[in-house]
Amino acid sequence: MIFKSSTQKTLIALAVASSVMLSGCQTTASTLTEQPQSTVASVVVTPANTGSSAITLEQAMAHPDWLGRQAERAFWAADSKTVVYAQKQQGNELRDLFTQAVDSQAASQVALNKLHTLGAGDAVYSADRTQQAYVFEGNVFVKNINTGAITQITHDSAKQSKPQFLTDGNLAYRQANTFYKVDLATGLQAELVNLHLSDAPKGVTEPETYIAKEQHKLIDYIALTHKNKKDKQAFKEQLNQQNSSIANAQFYLGKGNELVDVQLSPNGKALIAVVTEIRPWRDDADIMPNYIVDDARVKAEKVRRRVADEKPQTSQVIYIDVTEQTQTTLAFDTLPGFDDDVLAAVKKENYARDGKTYESKKEPRAINLMMDWGWDQSAIVWNKAGTHAAMMLEAWDNKDRWLVTVDAKNSKLVSQHRLHDDAWVNYAYNDFGWLNNSDTLYYLSEETGYSHLYKKPLNGKATQLTKGQFVVSNLTLTDDDNAIYYKANVEHPGLYEIYRVDPQTAKSEQVTNLDGMTDYKLSPDQSKLLLTHSKIMAPPELYIADVKANTTATQLTHTVSSEFLTKQLIAPKIVAVPSSHTKQPIYAKVYYPADYVEGESGKNRKAIIFNHGAGYLQNSHMGWSGYFREFMFHSLLASEGYVVMDMDYRASKGYGRDWRTAIYRQMGTPEIEDLADGVKWMAENANVDTGAVGTYGGSYGGFMTFMALFTQPDLFQAGAALRPVTDWAHYNGPYTSNILNHPDVDPIAYEKSSPIYYAQGLKNRLLINAPMVDNNVFFQDSVRLVQRLIELKKENFETAIFPVEPHGFVQPSSWLDEYRRIHKLFKESL
């Protein structure tokens, strides 16, 4: 169900900041420089309950096709008048593609023989915006935007990628590790750079050993053969140098290396390649038994290694001058802090526990390209002219991020910005690039405690462009440099709108005002926005809006099913729970029982707290949740008389750096403190009996369920842990090492944060739901904990296994079985 944004909203200031219920608010001014979030006491219109037909557990856990098949992977067509999107077929996992004009309510399915004409979401454009280049099924196409004519550049099975228009108007693309240039006027294809992951060939070498030298002296045939080889090599070198018709762009990046990333300059004159030593992603023993396979045997699935088995790894940055045919490896020793012992205090603490003394010393740290988990850009970015390149680098120990530029003349890296964090540098909010018309960088940084936008001239000081207690993400720069569009939660942590800032004046203005969760894509002609917007009670739909302040958006798609709209669902209220441990409140969704009367007394309500997964994820926002099954389950529980709370505990996304890093070296401590505050709030504000509260969650939420029941055994009377982490040393490295360092360096953090060390604290009922083919949180996690509970002689736990399910369940029958067990647990225990 879509709720229209009110043109005027009434903000009511409350004297007591005990709770907040809101669905949206709007800044009164069209421009802002430093806009604080809405105060805890601000209250606005909340969503209404919907439908009249009761939701059942079977329906809530059914295949989501019944909700309506929403538009996916939407992007602009080259003409800026048409939108392309995918839609799932009914009853299977295939997708069809549709096009829809921005001024139409009708979509057209695209025939299979026309799919190559649509362009792509990552299509690139020529400098004059008259041509579009893209890849379809591994082949390169160029579209004339004015005429619509399409030219297929390649037609083979070799798989091309990364098309880019060069400053001379021609096109380049990558095939494997070779870059080609295509003259679009003549069709001539030329090899620009051919990268080899091997050592350079040695050519004809002179004899080195005594007997080899004597062989050449004594045997004329050997000497003559050697001379002929040298003559042939010399001739070949002269031919390559003097005849321009021959491709001669071979570069050798070292035997035993693999290519991490490579980016060609827009002028085609230089290239930056980053390589690292080839290492297996797993060890031989890293397997997962799969018991339900088509041949009725047990299949040993290969899985990733654990954080406990990771070893430091560094990269090499290689600058290639295509014109001069030279390559140079750029050292990291120009980066501030490149050899700092950033973990000295942690090591000292761990050494002391073992009765040893740690002596700090400087040594080069392992450094690699930044790996932002949400990026659709490279960590290597050239400026528009191809004269300067910037890179985002990160330390393997997760404490530093450097934005650097390449000084090709002096063969060195120049640090433009260093972001250091004693906890860990965020693996989100790392967007960066160059302004189009000056040698000025723009980038996101959490240096103030929130992700904000900055600009910095190549040889100048940085300027902060956005300010306030909100987070900025998803940057898009206009061609004229007059605006950078961004997504931000300015008005409230759970309300995301689109804004734009003038990089010259640092003045921001709000563009959208849709009250919910909004994402965007700027049209190729930069006159319109394609918006993906949802609300708490409404799955995402596509909208179109002109690019102007406080724009009006027009809904383009209407995919939500009538069946869903008829379901009786209870709308959660977003509240701000006062924290006992931090100045910021803990934002949470609360589902009140259908028969709840404000101000009722008696402390007789039962309650459940849901713990979202991923740790660094935001769920108490005003858009449609990825936990849509849980949303319906919570509505069902509320209809049965439960109060249900869904908290954005400390570590959740969207609340700034301090909120994110509160769990550093102590996962499971701040979060459970927040859950305790949630129980207290429900007792004081929702008539909840603190002796009748349960909790549940999956993945990180399952881990939290364990920690709650093990470390504060009287807080909850029952808990269900789904696909749960039990020992962080067994989880993956990229996620875990941020928060807990590595086990060989910081075992204290792992022991303090892993539920298996606290299992003796279990007192009340526990349900463990474990998928057996989970390649994210291994089934072994649950197996080890169960054995620990058996050895501790615990009696009040049970385990359910799901033989065919991965980390994210797929089969509706499994979803239903799992949630029937959870429902039964709470009915029997609370």
From TrEMBL:
Signal sequence region: 1-29
Keywords: Signal
Pfam families, per the entry: DPPIV_N (PF00930), Peptidase_S9 (PF00326)
Protein name as it appears in the record: S9 family peptidase
Organism, as annotated: Pseudoalteromonas arctica
Entry keyword Ribosomal protein: no
Domain Dipeptidylpeptidase IV N-terminal, residue spans: 380-539
PANTHER family: DIPEPTIDYL PEPTIDASE 9, PROTEASE FAMILY S9B,C DIPEPTIDYL-PEPTIDASE IV-RELATED
GO terms, molecular function: dipeptidyl-peptidase activity; serine-type peptidase activity
Domain of life: Bacteria
GO biological process: proteolysis
Peptidase S9 prolyl oligopeptidase catalytic domain boundaries: 635-829
